[in-house]
């Protein structure tokens, strides 16, 4: 340093006396030719210490302090030399060194390397690669910044205040790289949850030990809003495709159950049901819990998407119920538990309604109806009403022969038609008692609206049968 200052002073004096005398200036340069090499070697040592600053500050903080002081001194000399050049036109060789700028570049590169080194596994080797990477990044950044706060800031001038910004920028660059990759839906959620929630939480930048060092709200977003929007759009597109497939598969599985030779399961109140509503809403619940990790608005967006898909699904559900009835009409012996499963289909409509309302209460802030509510309500009522009609059709098909005997000569001369009708109706109504409210009113109400004479007879015979047994 002193040799360099001596050289610079001699050169300046020579320049003042005779600025055009290049030969004397060359003699001075030759005499001090090793000075530049010493300066370069010192710089290398400084950069090495700074690259290892997180380790150095723990083992020998005085070395780091000395390095920073050297850089600060060179920065002051740079400023003085630049100012003198403005006045005299002379500046020594190698000036300005700009070691302070270089120091920040080295620190930035060190932090960047630290963040990039958090990926311990590849996507191909581990499906949870992103979750692991983000967790390691969180831990490294938090640990490093606590060291910065407790040790590093004491080694640098207070006005530097650079480390939190360096780490923030390095993390931002890394998550931008991750966002540009071909991420799966669950990976998008993991990344956005980390970026939008974990990063500023007490688990990371909002940690109590760091709280006093900077204003977390002054940090720029890790990801630009347009990148966040693109990721959300990609997730919604993938989710829509997935949920369509899940619903289709769930319905196909339920349809297979309709063909079973055993009655469907009953709930705790004895009402027939299938597992379809539980499966569907378990899928919805899982995805809504995931969406809720991102933010409230996105959670509501996913719920509305679920309801929209639900409406499409219920239209298909209605079609399959009609097909089920038509296939049964071709061979009324099959399936053996047709009536019981049709009742379960009807009951599922009420379960769907209750589950939808439950999701809305849990995941919607507003009680305002969604765009899908009216269509869902209408379709569910139609499925239930048609299902009840199919059940009545089944009753009247069984009774048709016996009803035709009523008020005939055969009936007057002695017929068991009334007894058969009463027993059959009572048997069916034992099953109909397993229809949930309010749909358990449909089997009687539908025929009453039609004004069928045969219905009057059935109701009457049922009443007679009931009175007879009383």
From TrEMBL:
BP-aspect Gene Ontology terms: exocyst localization; exocytosis
A GO term, aspect molecular function: SNARE binding
UniProt xrefs under InterPro entries: EXOC3/Sec6
GO cellular component entries: exocyst
Domain of life: Eukaryota
The protein's name: Exocyst complex component 3
Gene it is expressed from: exoc3
